[in-house]
Amino acid sequence: MLDDPLGFLEYIGEHPEQFLRLLGEHVQLTLLSVVIGIAVALPLAVVCSRIEALAKPMTWLAAVGQTIPSLAILGLTLPFLGIGFRPSLFALTIRAILPIFLNAYIGLRGADRAVVDAARGMGTSNAQRLFLVELPLASPVIFAGVQTATVQNIGVATLAAYIGGGGLGDLILQGLAMVDPPVLLAGAVPVALLAMTAEIGLGRLRRLVVPAGLRPAGTG
Amino acid sequence: MGYLIDHPDRVLVLTGEHLRLVAISVALAILIGVPLGVLITRFRWLEAPAINATGVLYTVPSLALFAILIPYTGIGVTTATVALVLYSLLAIVRNTVAGIDGVPPATLDAARGMGMTGGQRLLLVELPLALPVILAGVRVATVAAVGIATVAAAIGAGGLGRLIFDGIRLTGPARLERIIAGALVASLLSLAADWGLARLGRIFGGDQGPIASGG
């Protein structure tokens, strides 16, 4: 049992610079990986929703990729890219691409055919249909994928400390090595709060970004 | 692949530890989650707090949850098991509720008409009909648990994560072959669990689609 369950707050209070630096690294790793992940996964999903022959192997690959433990992806990056922030960012980006791609593909495929056909009948071009009809229709499912990737990567960023990626995982590693609960919790409690905040905050945001016409359907 | 061929005995031991950790955790989560799910279908006001609590718990990163539990349950298998049970609850509770809610009211009326008691209806009608949906939840929970269990090696709970952590600490070719061995066997376990539980679900008449996101 803990003598002082709030001892970790004392630790954070005594080391504000270290804590803020690690928190900053953590948020940076998560946000950058998700943004790059969107930039890669979304075009890929659009291409796959257009080219049937590509869709099957790509979704299969993504589904199998999901089963590889995050720790293994970080570990596999190490021999090739070394330790540090950039290798960690690379591994996190790979991790972000999978759920965003799968959700975007499912969302685009699930876009109501009748609506898309109606848009075609109105004489829209391919690009117009994509940007004005299909992507907005798929947006709740795409956003859910981004939410999953963000919350998940706050966790993967914690593990990135093992390959020198920095972030709040550093404090957990330090706390484990020294069997020092206040240091352990100084990393763990903020990470947990960060993940919960992201989940709840993005959930709220999702309701705001969903096109008005889709709201009663409650997809995603 | 080299490590798998040179040290099959060690890989087997670690795989055994991994499987035991996942099996015990998911079994405990079923023992807690299914009754909790049933309780929710009887006392509806429980639904929001129970689903929200398990949902929020699910978002806590594994290394952080292990760390938060360590002051109470120590370093090792106990902490890993408690954390994996907590993670598995969401899918199992949610699917138990969904499965029981999906039982057609006409079927329940018929059971009532036959003079079944509440307990009989639950055990002979509701739970059997909800089984495919509950199994789908067990499948999601198990696949996620196989992945999360790799991190448990960080707190001395053993399992295939040991190979990955060993690899990270080493240098040279020994590093890559350990990491690949750990990653490969853990991924195969996860695929096997996914496939096996999907088959089991089909045997009980469920529709088993692919899982969209894992742990």
Topology (SSEs and partners):
The complex is a heterodimer of chains A (220) and B (215).
Chain A lengths: L6 H8 L1 H35 L1 H16 L2 H12 L3 H25 L3 H9 L4 H34 L9 H10 L2 H29 L11
Helix pairs in contact in A: 1-9, 2-3, 2-5, 2-7, 3-5, 4-5, 5-7, 6-7, 7-9, 8-9
Chain B lengths: L1 H5 L1 H35 L4 H13 L2 H12 L3 H25 L3 H9 L4 H34 L9 H9 L3 H31 L12
Helix pairs in contact in B: 2-5, 2-7, 3-5, 4-5, 5-7, 6-7, 7-9, 8-9
Give a structural overview.
The complex is a heterodimer of chains A (220) and B (215). Chain A is mainly α and 220 residues long. Chain A is 81% helix and 0% strand. Chain A has helices spanning 7-14, 16-50, 52-67, 70-81, 85-109, 113-121, 126-159, 169-178, 181-209. In chain A, helix 2 packs antiparallel against helix 3 and helix 2 packs parallel to helix 5 (85-109). The longest helix of chain A has 35 residues, at 16-50. Chain A is elongated and about 70 Å long. The termini of chain A are far apart. The mean pLDDT of chain A is 90. Chain B is mostly helical. Helix content of chain B is 80%, strand content 0%. Chain B has helices at 2-6, 8-42, 47-59, 62-73, 77-101, 105-113, 118-151, 161-169, 173-203. The longest helix of chain B has 35 residues, at 8-42. The radius of gyration of chain B is 20 Å and the shape is elongated. The chains are: A mainly alpha (220), B mainly alpha (215).
- How would you spell out the order of helices and strands of chain B? HHHHHHHHH
Low-confidence runs of at least 5 consecutive residues of chain A? none
How much of the sequence of chain A is in beta strands?
under 5%
Largest sheet of chain B: none
Counting DSSP H or I runs of 4 or more residues, the number of helices of chain A is 9
Structural class of chain A: mainly alpha
What is the 3D shape of chain B?
elongated
Determine Rg of chain A (CA atoms, Å): 20 Å
Largest sheet descriptor of chain A = none
Assembly classification: heterodimer
Biggest protein-protein contact in the assembly: A-B, 51 and 44 residues
What is the string of helix and strand elements of chain A? HHHHHHHHH
| Average residue pLDDT of chain A | 90
Number of strands of chain B: 0
